[in-house]
Amino acid sequence: MKKVFAILAVAAAVSACTTTTPSDTYDKRVDAERVRRETAVEKSVERAPKWMTELPVSTNAVYANGSAASQDMSMADYKAKLFAYGKICMAAGGKVSQQSKVFMLDNSSASYETSEVAIRGVCPDVDITGVETKEIKRIAEGTRFRSYVLVALPTGDANVLKKQKDQTRLQSQAAGRSKQAFEELDVVATEKQQ
């Protein structure tokens, strides 16, 4: 009988040590979520194309990349392209304005931080006509799509669309100027006749 009580005592002690408290359960959830997020970020970095860290170099084009995630594939593509276009725009002389707000509470029992950043890129004087999507790669990130986009803006004679746009603009200016020039000549001729 003593053996039965001894075994029961040992079993009770072992079960008391392995019993989880509610806070242990929540801590495990928090740790599992942190591990899940870290794993997702690591996979995103591992699966990113090489041109996300090493842009192609060319004497006839400017390259930029962008990355974004969304639950909608088209939105992920769209946002990634916007980031890439913004980089090209900034490289060509665009301006950026930024506003930040940070609130931090820190005391002996808790630490809390919230931050907000609003960035506006404005490129009114920068023409990115002819920009092309060179490559796009999509991966699944949990229930979201992550798009990696590589865009290129051809320069000089390589940018056919920009050349056409410039030629059309010049033709329009020439047509307007020629009309004005003939009107000026008509005024001079009329004055001489009087």
Protein architecture, described:
This protein has helices at residues 2-18, 22-47, 73-91, 160-193, and strands at residues 61-70, 95-106, 111-122, 132-141, 144-154. It is α+β, with helices and mostly antiparallel strands and 194 residues long. The protein folds into three domains: 1-47; 55-155; 159-194. It has a three-stranded antiparallel beta sheet with strand order 1-5-4, with helices on both faces. A hairpin with a 4-residue loop joins strand 2 and strand 3. The longest helix has 34 residues, at 160-193. It is elongated, with a radius of gyration of 32 Å.
Topology:
Blueprint lengths: L1 H17 L3 H26 L13 E10 L2 H19 L3 E12 L4 E12 L9 E10 L2 E11 L5 H34 L1
Antiparallel strand pairs: 1-5, 2-3, 4-5
Give a brief description.
By secondary structure, the chain is α+β, with helices and mostly antiparallel strands. It is built from four helices and five strands.
Strand order of the largest sheet: 1-5-4
Strand content: 25-35%
Q: How many strands in all?
A: 5
Q: Tally the helices: what do you get?
A: 4
The largest sheet, given as strand count, sense and whether it forms a barrel, is: 3 strands, antiparallel
**Rg computed from alpha carbons, rounded to a whole number of angstroms:** 32 Å
Tally of distinct domains: 3
Unreliable stretches covering 5 or more consecutive residues: none
Helix-strand category = alpha+beta
Distance between the termini: 139 Å
What's the rounded overall pLDDT mean?
78
Label the overall shape.
elongated
Percentage of helical residues? 40-55%
Series of H and E elements: HHEHEEEEH
